[in-house]
């Protein structure tokens, strides 16, 4: 059976939060979801935690450290769901919020859906990154005539076939900008 949703989780030195994020993902998403964890050369116990707590249906990949972009790019070819989302392994994003993106996507097929950390109160947002994100988002909106509120949001939901066609090259967090303007 083809899953409805694939979720790629890039992991780098997230031993402190990894078991909890895995538990939350397993609690919210079930049979119709493919979880792809990509360990990006963690130097802590992240890989051991992934191996211990992954369900039999989860895919755990590991690679030398190359950055978030390289980890996400490693997961993309393995995505089998109709849609694919990205979930960071820290606790800045609540996995259940992906359900809102998925509900919107189901009524808007072939659309890339962006979440936003700025449309409602978010106690987990990193304040030091807030203004940089708003500046980059404004620049991208001008450059690409878009109307984003949070271009560097991790929560982006793609039709998988569209995501697989993106010619992504980013190694690090610049992946967010690359995904924001597409091919």
Commentary on this structure:
The chain has helices at residues 15-28, 46-53, 68-75, 98-107, 127-144, 160-165, 175-181; strands at residues 5-11, 33-40, 59-63, 83-86, 113-114, 156-159. With 183 residues, the chain is an alpha/beta fold. It has a 6-stranded mixed sheet with strand order 3-2-1-4-6-5, with helices on both faces. Helix 1 runs parallel beside helix 2 (46-53). The radius of gyration is 16 Å and the shape is globular. The model has no long low-confidence stretch (mean pLDDT 86).
CATH-defined topology: Spore Coat Polysaccharide Biosynthesis Protein SpsA, Chain A
The count of β-strands is 6
In CATH's first tier, which class applies? Alpha Beta
| Tertiary shape | globular
Count of DSSP-assigned helices: 7
- Profile the largest sheet: 6 strands, mixed
Strand content: 15-25%
Q: How far is the N terminus from the C terminus?
A: 30 Å
SSE class: alpha/beta
**Helix content bin:** 25-40%
The CATH architecture classification is Alpha-Beta Complex
Rg for CA atoms: 16 Å
Strand order of the largest sheet: 3-2-1-4-6-5
What is the name of the CATH superfamily? Spore Coat Polysaccharide Biosynthesis Protein SpsA, Chain A
Mean of all residue-level pLDDT scores: 86
């Amino acid at each position: 059976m083809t899953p409805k949703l694939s979720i790629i989780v890039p992991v780098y030195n997230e031993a402190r939060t990894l078991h909890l994020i895995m538990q939350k993902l397993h609690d919210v998403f079930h049979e119709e979801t493919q979880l792809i964890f990509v360990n990006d050369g963690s130097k802590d116990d992240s890989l051991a935690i992934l191996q211990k707590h992954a369900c039999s249906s989860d895919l755990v990949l590991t690679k030398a450290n190359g950055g978030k972009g390289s980890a996400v790019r490693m997961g993309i070819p393995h995505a089998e769901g109709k849609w694919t989302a990205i979930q960071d392994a820290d606790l800045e994003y609540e996995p259940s919020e992906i359900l809102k993106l998925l509900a919107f996507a189901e009524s808007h097929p072939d659309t890339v859906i962006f979440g936003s950390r700025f449309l409602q109160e978010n106690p987990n947002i990193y304040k030091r990154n807030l203004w940089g994100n708003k500046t980059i988002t404004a620049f991208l909106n001008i450059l690409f005539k878009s109307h984003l509120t949070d271009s560097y949001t991790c929560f982006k939901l793609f039709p998988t076939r569209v995501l697989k066609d993106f010619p992504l090259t980013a190694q690090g967090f610049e992946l967010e900008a690359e995904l924001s303007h597409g091919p």
